[in-house]
Amino acid sequence: MWRVKPLDAILATAEKKSLHRSLGAFQLTMLGIGAVIGTGIFVLTAEAAQKAGPGMMISFIIAGVVCAVAALCYAEMASMVPVSGSAYTYSYAVMGELVAWMVGWALILEYAVAAGAVSVGWSGYVVGLLEATFGLEIPDALTLGPFDGGMINLPAMAIAGLVTWLLVIGTRESATVNSILVAIKVAALTLFIVLAVPVMRMEEFTPFMPLGFAGVATAAASIFFAYVGFDAVSTAAEETKNPQRNMPIGLIGSLSVCTIFYLLVAAGVIGSVGAQPVLGADGAALAPGSRELADACRALADGKVVCSKEALAWTLREIGWPQIGNLIGLAAGLALPSVILMMMFGQTRIFFVMSRDGLLPAAFSKIHPKYNTPHVITIITGIAVALFAAFFPVGQLANISNSGTLFAFAAVSIAVLVIRKTDPNRHRPFRTPLIWLTAPIAVLGCVFLFFSLDEKSKYLFVIWAVIGLLVYFLYSRSRSHVGRGIVDVPELEPDAPPPNVVRPAEEH
């Protein structure tokens, strides 16, 4: 179970059963921004305010720093191993099959649950837009899950189904639509900043940390979700032209743009309408996404941003820009599907590569004869995402997703250190600067944020990991291509020495 898949074999497998290379540096950066800017800033701003108050500014910075150092580690691995699979593939090459399996299993938790969270966030904005624009009163029973005071979130299910269909049609079409949606999203946030920042009042930043640093840390663990997505860029490595140059540009460029936006938007929300948490009778902050908070919000004479399902649109309506607020709601409704698209894109590609390695059934790596996409696993993923979105609140989904993400990020950061020692002479188009400082900071940051998550999310991650171990030992370990000696190797020159691995006589 500690067997590794040699990097040369990984690259050879990708060439043998590969996806079409059609993405350039600009498209990758747009995919990154499309994946990163989304539910985190549009929806979880209210969640972070309830946990940290104005101190969520520090939460954004903490989460951004952890993501930045992890991105540098990702960039080195992605440029050196330009194939689909992201952290799973990197771990397989460096730390062995069991670690790779657990990382892949954690990524399933990350992407599928995250796509569900974004679907719920989209639902909140679209429902708010319809109610504000047309004066409708849409029943909560059909737009909120049972934990939030409703029964089922039908709009969230619908958008998950639509994105699944788009992904089955094809990568190029998905990327083109995504670029348009990213432009809409960035324009909406820019408009929000232009209108909200000038009316900031410094007194709204006091008290800055009403719940202390513990609240800031808890908010950072949640708001980390706002940065998740840049690693989905690396899952597109196998579909990238000149990945050695374009992957680092896409990863680091998208993260830099997003961090600047986040801080400006957060400052605009806090300074214009305030961001103090709603407290219970005992003086403690009520849990976001809980029935208790929902009941307390209904009892308030004046609304608060922490009560809103559409924080940015609500803020603009409060400061005298109701039509622009509706426009922001429309932009979120148009643009958030791009985030769902990237999350599900990453999920299906992880499944595709794990199936190609024999760790999951071969049907998962079937390619559609017309669209050239892994349609079977895309449809399965879409059904799972729709079910998550239907029944769970956005904050809980985000936290569960973060637990898987943090595990994967830490694994990649360790893998970069290991391969620097075990294979120092391999060509590295991008080298992580100050690796012996950068990678340990990334690992420690991930551990800190993981233990700042709520207890439920940590327990669910442990349960998911145990299920993953059972699947591995009962199914995957005995069917692994590496374990059975089915490892593709690069084509050899006629006078080259024989390889240490065998090429199978036929495709398995």
**Number of distinct beta strands:** 0
Supply the number of helical segments.
19
> Biggest β-sheet, characterized?
none
Identify the overall geometry: globular
Write the CATH architecture name.
Answer: Up-down Bundle
Q: How many separate domains make up the residues? A: 1
What is the share of helical residues?
Answer: 55-70%
Beta-strand portion reads: under 5%
Mean pLDDT, all residues: 83
**Corresponding CATH superfamily:** Amino acid/polyamine transporter I
Q: What Rg do the Cα atoms give?
A: 23 Å
Describe this structure in words.
This protein has 508 residues and is an all-alpha fold. The chain has a single domain (22-277, 285-479), classed as Amino acid/polyamine transporter I. It has 19 helices and no strands. The protein is globular. Residues 489-508 have low confidence and may be disordered.
Question: Which short descriptors sum up this protein?
Answer:
508 residues; 19 helices; disordered C terminus
